[in-house]
Amino acid sequence: MKYRNEQLRDALASEYALGTLQGRARRRFERSLKDDPQLRALVTRWQDRLAPLDAAGQPIQPPARVWRTTQERIQTGRHRGGLWSSLPFWRTVGLAGIAGALTLALLLATLPPTRHGPETMVVVMSDAEANPAMTVSWPMQQRGQPRMRIRVMGHPEMASGTAWELWLLLGGEQKPVSLGLIGTEAMQELTVPRSVVPMMDRAYGLAMSIEPSGGSPTGQPTGPVLYKGQCVLM
Amino acid sequence: MPDNDAIAELMARCALRDQRAFAELYRLTSAKLYGVAIRILRREDWAEEVLQESFVNIWNHIAEYSATRSAPMTWMTAIVRNRALDWLRRPNLERGDEDYDLLVESLPDQGPGPDVVLGHGRDAAALAECLRQLSGDQRQTIMLAYAHGLSHGELAQHLKQPLGTVKTWIRRGLERLKGCMDGRS
Question: Is 0.90 topped by the overall pTM?
Answer without folding.
Answer: no
